[in-house]
Structures are given as structure tokens and as C-alpha cells.
Specification:
The protein contains 14 helices and no strands. It is mainly alpha-helical and about 270 residues long. Helices cover about 70% and strands about 0% of the residues. Helix 7 packs antiparallel against helix 8. The protein is elongated. The chain starts with a helix and ends with a helix. It has a domain of about 55 residues.
């Protein structure tokens, strides 16, 4: 009997070689597209984003030609976004827009893309010499572009008003980024570069709250560069558009070269 047990034991221990590795249970096997979609949405409603993603990915891959294929993509994109998988969310939204450019809710795809890219990367913080080159507002520009498409192409969209609000915010953030860069250049005594950045704000972001500071940087830069005619012209523009600016006071008139720096100190 002991001899027989010794012979059987190796076969029992090696049973996995006969049956293979255990297969992960897939609850979507054999289910309809509607069932899979409902299951994924149920997980999403409970904020179980990993499970929602797992199920919706199965449906999106398994039924690419289903009438529910567009909804699979939108639900999946939203689940990616909520689970902080922004790159995957953007890729899925771009796929939806490419495949269904005339879909009744393609405005939502553009809106959601803008929301995913709508990230405050700390642009309100002052730039330092160490991190100025690390700042990247490209996602903000892409976010603005997505919202702009909704506003221009789909004026009846229910996301229209929210897009306008977000666009205003983004425009001010992008203008602020340019102002911070201009101030950085002024600190480095790169006056032409600072002047160019300030001019860019006036031209590209005329409706933002940073116009006054852009003019002040230009006045300081012109004086440092000895371009008196343009300096005086810019001072007139400042006085015309901002008659109550603190930079019209007598105490500050003799310090025009340092105007940009005085403004800078307001943030300290």
C-alpha cells in the first residue's frame, strides 16, 4: 500500500500539467452587448472604476460593430478619466470622434476631452529660475481647443455654457503663464524677450485680466532699451485703458524702469 501511494503522489502533484494554468473568470463570456454595457455602468455607478474598465474593454473589443459600440467607447473614456488614466481616455475619445464625426452626441466627446485636459498645473504659482523650463501649457491649449469646437460647432449643446466658462479660465491661465515668463526675462535683464512676451499677451489674449501688467512690462522694457517714443505711446495706452492704475501716482513716475518689479512685489 505504501508503495502504491508513492507511485500516485507524483501524478497528483503534477496534475497542473494535465489541466494547464487556471483561467481567470470572465463574467462577460457569452453575454450580449447590452448586458456587458449595463454591467460596466453598474460598476461605474458604484465608483468601481477598475471593474468598469475591465468589463467595458471586453465589450468595446468584442463588439466593434454593435449599435452600442459608440456608447462603449464613451463610457470607457469616462471610466479611464475617473481612474486617472488620462492618456487612455484621450485616445478613446479621439477614436470616437474619428469613427463617429456626425454622431448626435459627438459634442460630449469634445467636451469630455476638454475636461480631461483641463488640469491646473500650478500656473498661478510664480515661476522660479529652476522650474521655468518645466512648465508646459500645451494640455491647456488642447483643452481650450476642444471647448472651442463645442462652442463654434454646437451652439445648442447643453455643454455650451460650461465650455465658455472654462475657456475664459483657460485663457486667463495661458495669459498668466506668458506674463510670468516675461517677468522672468525682465529679472534676467533679457528686456527684448520680456517685451516680446508682453506684446504677445496683448495680441493673443486681449480679453484677459493681464493686459495692464503686460503694458507695464512693456513700459519698463522700452525704458531699459532706450526706446522713448514707444515707451510714451504705451504709457498713453495704459492711462487711457487703466486711468485708476496705481502706476500713475507721482511717487512711481520716476521709477518706470522698475515698474515691472514693483508689480512683481505685489505677489510676494
Amino acid at each position: 500500500m505504501k508503495f502504491i501511494s508513492i507511485l500516485i503522489l507524483p501524478f497528483l502533484l503534477s496534475g497542473c500539467f494535465f489541466f494547464g494554468d487556471p483561467v481567470e473568470f470572465d463574467e462577460t463570456t457569452g453575454q450580449t452587448p447590452q448586458w456587458i454595457l449595463s454591467r460596466g455602468e453598474a460598476y461605474a455607478s458604484n465608483n468601481d472604476w477598475p471593474s468598469a474598465i475591465r468589463v467595458l474593454e471586453k465589450g468595446e473589443q468584442r463588439y466593434p460593430n454593435s449599435k452600442l459600440a459608440p456608447q462603449f467607447k464613451l463610457d470607457l473614456a469616462y471610466s479611464y478619466y475617473r481612474f486617472s488614466q488620462d492618456a487612455e481616455a484621450i485616445a478613446m475619445l479621439d477614436k470616437f470622434i474619428r469613427l463617429y464625426p456626425n454622431h448626435p452626441i459627438v459634442d460630449y466627446a469634445f467636451y469630455l476631452k476638454g475636461v480631461v485636459l483641463f488640469i491646473d498645473r500650478g500656473l498661478m504659482d510664480k515661476f522660479t529660475l529652476q522650474d521655468i523650463s518645466d512648465r508646459d501649457i500645451a494640455p491647456l491649449k488642447e483643452s481650450f481647443k476642444a471647448f472651442e469646437i463645442v462652442v463654434e460647432r454646437y451652439p445648442d449643446s447643453k455643454y455650451y455654457d460650461d465650455c465658455l466658462i472654462r475657456m475664459t479660465y483657460l485663457m486667463n491661465k495661458m495669459a498668466e503663464n506668458e506674463i510670468h515668463v516675461a517677468r522672468y526675462y525682465m529679472k534676467r535683464k533679457a528686456y527684448v524677450a520680456g517685451l516680446n512676451r508682453a506684446q504677445y499677451v496683448l495680441k493673443e489674449y486681449p480679453q484677459t485680466i493681464h493686459q495692464e501688467e503686460a503694458l507695464i512690462i512693456m513700459i519698463s522694457a522700452y525704458e531699459f532699451l532706450g526706446i522713448q517714443d514707444l515707451q510714451k505711446d504705451t504709457e498713453k495706452i495704459l492711462k487711457l485703458n487703466y486711468p485708476n492704475s496705481q502706476f500713475h501716482t507721482i511717487d512711481l513716475q520716476a521709477q518706470k524702469k522698475d515698474w515691472w518689479n514693483i508689480w512683481d512685489s505685489l505677489y510676494d
